[in-house]
Amino acid sequence: xxxxxxxxxxxxxxxxxxxxxxxxxxxxxxxxxxxxxxxxxxxxxxxxxxxxxxxxxxxxxxxxxxxxxxxxxxxxxxxxxxxxxxxxxxxxxxxxxxxxxxxxxxxxxxxxxxxxxxxxxxxxxxxxxxxxxxxxxxxxxxxxxxxxxxxxxxxxxxxxxxxxxxxxxxxxxxxxxxxxxxxxxxxxxxxxxxxx
Length: 196
Hints:
mainly alpha, Arc Repressor Mutant, subunit A, 8 helices, disordered N terminus
């Protein structure tokens, strides 16, 4: 079944339908579920996977520490998937844990912007830089016709790397700013760039 509603409108429609159909779920709970779903899909598109995204977003939304059992109830995922996802999130520095008795309590220690920064950084380090180095090393082995096309592609890759490095630098410098200051700096940067 395909929907004619955009995804966000569909989520809002489904949320309202749940509420109006006598479902006892509170508005706050519906909004939280929808938010977790939307952000986990975004994080999935950034290469971390939807389960990892849902677990991370649940921790972000909660704001405090949660056990694996609590995360299992919140997400509906198996304990094994929760455990492996939390291990991964800890390994990349987005989540930390502390022990309380025999249980581990987990907490998100980074933000969605940190995930985006990490995504850009991985593209620069693992994909663009290695592609650029490979092309530079091997471009002389190509025929004249292929070399010209490869030089154009090499320039595009170098521009993409510079653009992402600029985005990473901006994210690092501005992510802690209040939204109003962040927006003003972005607007000021746009004005400077246009006049160049």
